[in-house]
Amino acid sequence: MALEVRPMWEGSFGAEISGFDMTRETGQEDWRRLVGASHTHGVIRLRGQKADPAALLRLASRFGTPVPHILTHFHVEGHSAVLKLSNIVTDGKQWGIYDGANYWHTDMAFEDPPGAATIVYALKTPRQGGATRVADMYAAYDELPDAMKKRIDGLVVLHHYGNRDDLDENSTGSASKLTDEQKKQVRNVFHRLVRPHPVAGRKALYGVSGSSFGIVGMPDDEAIDLLNELKAHATQERYVRELEYGPGDIAVWDTSCTLHAATPLAPVDSPDDPMARLLHRVSVKGRSPLFS
Ligand SMILES: [Fe+2]
């Protein structure tokens, strides 16, 4: 069956990939089309796959270099680059992160080099809800007034772990709580505000929400006002889509040209609860070896 790339929604944002089967050999040209689609369309989805953590890592490594996440306590055992996301809590123990990403953010923008893509594999999905909201940062940049484009081109943004809109680590709207050891590893990094996609070259607004805390050479209040203005622009309904998945689906969002936010789900006390969610997630950095 030939690999096909079709629009997932209206316009060029999002692509549905069909004719792909994780359990079969995929040729180099098809891999390039699949990974290239994530650079061009920002989000791709592959329905009905079978992926154990090792297979998921092999797929992820086509998009970049898988990296262990700072939240070491939610790694899949034996696979430090596979992170569990879940709303299941049994005997007081969380199965994965469930409260950390309900706000607009860019995965691993708080690192240097930053994340390149996030790959999610759905093992359990709730009967309803639980979609990831994704926003198109190519379109958000393209549609800025020329004066704003001029003002922000060349600006450099300070990022570190956290959500600038909610710094209370016990709040559900803040970034996931770090252990004291993890807090010691947090550092400041810098990324361009208008950042050309590392492979596709197209300009996108980068990291305007979440881990961005300041702009180099600009007073803090002015910088936050500007970041907030850009965030309000970039998360308008016309740039936002709901990325839904069922069990077996793999979704990839390219972090260079998207913002995303999880939809909150209430905790459940059993993996058999119809509202239970369990996802495996891999973040990659650097360039895809197919485009290096
Ligand atoms: Fe995220």
From TrEMBL:
The keyword Disulfide bond does not apply. SUPFAM superfamilies: Clavaminate synthase-like. The keyword Cell wall biogenesis/degradation does not apply. One of its GO terms (biological process) is sulfur compound metabolic process. GO terms for cellular component: cytoplasm. Keywords: Dioxygenase, Iron, Metal-binding, Oxidoreductase. InterPro entries: AtsK-like, TauD-like_sf, TauD/TfdA-like. GO terms for molecular function: metal ion binding; taurine dioxygenase activity. Residues 10-281 form the TauD/TfdA-like domain. Belongs to the TfdA dioxygenase family. This is TauD/TfdA family dioxygenase.
